[in-house]
């Protein structure tokens, strides 16, 4: 049995009945993010710069999510350290469901990341993110922390035993006790401490454990933009957004086109030729095809008289 799992089980045996009920049924973030019916959504995103299929995990953590996670993890790729990358964007949710996902994460071995455009709060931050074998906050990504509370009637009461279970799991994975207590002691169910990369990865010792995917600038940018790129409407746009070389030629083309448009004697013809090129570009399904298309269009524009 994993050390953190054993620590959780020992602590859980001492929980009072109201606390057990809360762990099963109450959203950790009820007063911050209203409970909704939709559970966490998992999807595969191919990151062209890193050349791996990663998991995008978004939404509220609910019972049954672990089955979906295990199923989609079979389709994901592993990085150079043998880890499956999991991009987190979640308000938190059911604590027990989060720990069931962690049990699966331990067997699969994962790299948890909160990139630009993403926020990972409550059970997502203190349980899922903190349980990654490697973990990082990048760009504008944010983690949200607060203390465990249980619901009793219409009020919320501090749940120190729940905090102990979460703290035992985090400490087993290298997060310092001081880092945990900083938020457990100061923030309750009505409050949320939001922290970005500077605090999460520099001030809270042990919370971040960057992996090999962050060793070069291009790889780090690719990971940072992964969530935002994954949401673009076309495969071609996702490829351009996620690859440094394609991004550079895209910007080069945009600059040449804008300059030509300013000086062109027939702007409508230029716009029409650009629309025609875009339709041709959108027939590409891989990087090599896109590079050929961009370079051909750049050469064509350079030869086009003003």
User: Total number of β-strand segments?
Assistant: 10
- The strands making up the biggest β-sheet line up spatially as 1-2-3-4-6
Helix percent reads 40-55%
Name of the CATH architecture of the largest domain: Alpha-Beta Complex
CATH top level class name of the largest domain:
Alpha Beta
Arithmetic mean of pLDDT: 85
Q: How would a textbook summarize the main sheet? A: 5 strands, mixed
SSE order, as H and E? HHEEHEHEEHEEEEHHEHHHHHHH
Describe the structure.
This protein is α/β, with parallel strands linked by helices. It has 2 domains: 3-222, 2-enoyl-CoA Hydratase, Chain A, domain 1; 233-303. It contains 14 helices and 10 strands. The protein has helices spanning 3-13, 17-25, 65-73, 95-108, 123-128, 160-172, 177-184, 197-203, 217-224, 226-230, 235-242, 244-263, 267-281, 287-303, and strands spanning 41-47, 52-58, 84-89, 110-114, 119-121, 134-137, 142-145, 149-152, 155-158, 193-195. The strands form 3 sheets. It has a 5-stranded mixed beta sheet, with helices on both faces. The radius of gyration is 23 Å and the shape is elongated. Mean pLDDT is 85; it is low at 10-37.
